[in-house]
Design goal:
This protein is an alpha+beta fold and 774 residues long. Among the domains are: 166 residues, Roll (PH-domain like), CATH 2.30.29; 148 residues, Pleckstrin-homology domain (PH domain)/Phosphotyrosine-binding domain (PTB) (PH-domain like, Roll). It is built from eleven helices and 41 strands. Helix 2 packs across helix 3. The two termini are 32 Å apart.
């Protein structure tokens, strides 16, 4: 095996360096039930180094013919399949016609992969590839260079891996040969029954009786603790699971303990915890059940995925996943997690709700596709959007872009920044009629022009926003009105008035008093695109009231005949209107109400899960609603089942409550995005055509969901644009689903869709991994 020392060398290779390649072959998926299924007709197999010492990857890359179009499938169905080279793969080479390499899934169960090698690949290359794979596995297990081992030791290790593969070949049900999983991630040293692996925690181990490997390469701050340190409570449910931990260096969940138990425990009133431990009572995970853990269920894989939240900083450190042994455990676990999250948020017993409301909220974590029209399904599958790299050529980067324009724009931004020293951007209003955006910064408003090549240019500054009494203020909410000729705004501390700024003269010209008693918390147009018209009326929302405002009235502007005040605490927080003027209102309790006109009770009330709704929007036809909570979005189809064209705005849904789907970031993406999740209000794309996308932001990231594909069940079909600073607000350019206006604390820009990247592509860039514990 001396040639292996030449391939790897005594020193660690460079990160992401290809060490050896089989240039051509065919990849198959192999299962006991279905046999061999074609995945990539033409592919290459490579062994590649990683950024983590002594860890290597087996990479299968699809090869396209010159005239073959690249596929447009789910953004996570990438053209590279990556596997961590660990002896758990049970990799082996099968000589025949043709020769092939096979390996198992990390979870086993007889499922795996087979790479048929092109007969034209010489035997020497095949042998080098196989032997190098075993050498990489050896380095991973031992945590040291193979140069310190003898050829005999390496050969013995390779024979051990081959024997395990021969005992349990892929395509057959796995034999249960031992209580201890036969892999380096949950294995043990002979004579030592405790875990010894690179994933073994290295804190609190002496107290718990665990003796980890001294060569561990993963973080020393895993959330392990001795059993005595786990808060005592009433155990509600126990499930047998296989525990995995996400490793961003290889982009995979790696098995940790295949014979673990996951427990849900009530430790105090409205307080619940998740505990995952080994059969020897070694505690892998102990944490509160809360929305910030980003709980995600996947029925296809019978798995539950979540983030561990650091108690002191409240930031996610890493991502765990468990795979349930049976469907009953999975369903009961999912139901109990839903109950715990509800009770933790609402401080009330989940099972005291009406049964139909319980059933409605229980479906919140279902990941099956939504009920959509057949035509929408076809449109989603035929959607030819191409998700390009962030640095792909775009109008901002295209050859021929004017340097003079860039210089003028930079000068304008500098002038705007100089004129607004000491203040930061806080509000964004995007014009529909005149291609302008307005950004609030302190008591000033920046005006930015939209150009035809999807750029944004500074135009002017409106200085010293003043009320009629001459007192300057910083608007807390703004809304364009009457063909973008006016900007309506609210003044902090003056909650029962609105102020109208004439944008042609750049000053406030009217003050509107809503009512002597009712305060206004939110304002929305009469219809979704009313700002394109000269319409003067609008809708106001208070904590417990909904009303129409008519500026033409003398005195108070509230229209009494079109108002409703609730006696009970409604806690309204946001609202939106459809193209017909139907109204949807969200609350801090998570409830959603749908009205077909003002002054009456809601036609439909959707119960809340306890997560406050901070923003809400509808499609122009009212069929779809997107509600924003702190950690996720809720997408709702308002069409009543069995009654095509009839929406919950027009008729009570009763027991036919709509499907409500959570749109959230994958837990593992939250970790490498560098912080906890806090979404800004999400919005549909705007314009005459059907809505194609949803936009929101989270911290330093703008996130765009492909709405067509989301409707057909691809809930993680999103792309991301990362910035150096926190995103304050964002919205689509009117009539464009590909152009987005983004306000940062000190800058404003327009970004096009092809500047956003899929998480898979971002994760491949080392610079995109922020505060990774690995």
């Amino acid at each position: 095996m001396n040639f292996l020392r030449n391939l790897i060398g005594s020193d660690q290779p460079k990160s992401h360096e290809d060490l050896v390649e089989i240039p051509s072959g065919t990849l198959y998926r192999v299962t006991p039930a279905n046999g061999k299924q074609l995945v990539f007709r033409d592919a290459a197999a490579t062994i590649r180094s990683t950024t983590t010492p002594f860890q290597y990857q087996l990479v299968i890359t699809r090869i396209y013919a010159e005239d073959e179009p690249e596929k447009d499938e789910d953004v996570f169905d990438d053209d590279e399949h990556v596997y961590l080279l660990d002896k758990a793969l049970r990799l082996r080479r099968l000589e025949g016609t043709p020769t092939s390499i096979e390996w198992t899934d990390a979870a086993g169960q007889g499922k795996g992969w087979e790479f048929e090698i092109d007969p034209e690949v010489d035997v020497d290359t095949q042998t080098k590839f196989e032997d190098l794979a075993y050498t990489c596995m050896y380095e991973r297990q031992e945590g040291k260079s193979h140069a310190t081992a003898s050829d005999r030791e390496l050969a013995a290790f390779a024979e051990q891996v081959k024997a395990a593969a021969h005992a349990n070949p892929i395509g057959q049900k796995v034999k249960n040969t031992s209580r201890t999983p036969a892999n380096a991630l949950a294995g043990s040293v002979q004579g030592t029954p405790t875990p010894r692996s690179p994933l073994s925690p290295i804190t609190s181990n002496q107290a718990s009786g665990v003796r980890p490997s001294t060569q561990s390469h993963l973080p020393g701050h895993l959330a392990s603790r001795p059993l005595a340190a786990v808060p005592v409570g009433e155990t509600i449910h126990v499930a047998n699971v296989m525990l995995h931990l996400y490793d961003p260096s290889v982009g995979q969940f790696l098995p940790v303990d295949q014979r673990a138990t996951a427990e849900i425990t009530e430790i105090a009133e409205w307080q619940f915890q998740l505990v995952v431990k080994s059969t020897t009572d070694y505690v892998w995970v102990c944490q509160p059940i809360e929305a910030e853990m980003q709980p995600t269920f996947n029925a296809a894989h019978k798995s539950f995925c979540w983030n561990y939240i650091q108690e002191s900083t409240r930031t996610p450190l890493y991502t765990w996943s468990v795979i349930f042994q049976n469907v009953d455990d999975e369903n009961e676990f999912k139901g109990l997690v839903t109950e715990c999250l509800y009770e933790q948020s609402n401080r009330e017993v989940f099972r005291k709700m009406k049964q139909q409301e319980q059933d409605y909220l229980m479906r919140l974590y279902d990941d099956d596709p939504m009920d959509v029209d057949v035509r929408e399904d076809i449109a989603a599958e035929n959607d030819q959007e191409q998700w390009e790299e962030e640095d792909a050529e775009s109008p901002q980067d295209a050859p021929g872009a004017s340097d003079a324009d860039d210089s003028d724009d930079e000068t304008g931004q500098q002038a705007y920044n100089a004129a607004t020293t000491g203040s930061k951007n806080s509000q964004l209003a995007v014009g529909y009629k005149h291609e302008r955006s307005f950004v609030v910064r302190g008591d000033k408003i920046g005006v930015f022009k939209h150009t035809e090549d999807d750029r944004i240019k500074f135009a002017t500054t409106i200085n010293n926003v003043r009320a009629m009494d001459g007192v300057t203020f910083s608007p807390r909410k703004v809304m364009l009105h009457q063909e973008d000729s006016a900007l309506l705004m609210m003044k902090p501390g003056d909650e029962n008035k609105l102020y109208k700024m004439d944008l042609e003269v750049g000053k406030i010209v009217e003050e509107w008093k809503v009512d002597d008693h009712r305060q206004i918390e939110e304002m929305v147009p009469d219809q979704k695109y009313a700002q394109l018209t000269k319409n003067e009326t609008l809708v106001g929302i208070g904590h417990n009231s909904i009303f129409r405002l008519d500026p033409r009235l003398a005195g108070n502007k509230l229209v009494e005949s079109q108002s409703k005040t609730y006696a009970t605490k409604a806690d309204f927080s946001c609202a939106a209107t459809t193209g017909k003027g139907e109204l949807v209102v969200g609350s801090t309790k998570g409830e959603i109400r749908m009205y077909n006109k003002l002054g009456i009770n809601a036609k439909t009330l959707l119960p809340g899960s306890g997560d406050a709704i901070i923003g809400i929007d509808t499609t122009e036809n009212g069929k779809w609603i997107v509600a924003t909570c702190k950690t996720h979005l809720l997408l709702i189809n308002t069409e009543i089942k069995g009654q095509p064209g009839t929406l919950g705005f027009q008729k009570s849904m009763g027991q036919e409550k709509p499907q409500m789907k959570r749109l959230q970031l994958k837990p593992e993406h939250v970790v490498w995005l560098g912080g906890s999740v806090s979404f800004t209000p999400a919005r549909f794309s705007t314009g005459d055509s059907e809505e194609q996308a949803i936009i929101t932001s989270c911290g330093k990231n703008v996130i765009r969901w492909n709405f067509r594909r989301v409707k057909s069940g691809h809930y993680y079909d999103y792309t991301i644009k990362q910035y150096e600073d926190t995103v304050v607000a964002d919205n689509f350019k009117y009539g464009e689903d590909r152009a987005i206006i983004v306000a940062l604390p000190s800058e404003v820009e327009m970004v096009t869709k092809n500047r956003l990247s899929t998480p898979v592509k971002l994760l491949k860039s080392r610079s995109s991994i922020v505060n990774s514990p690995f």
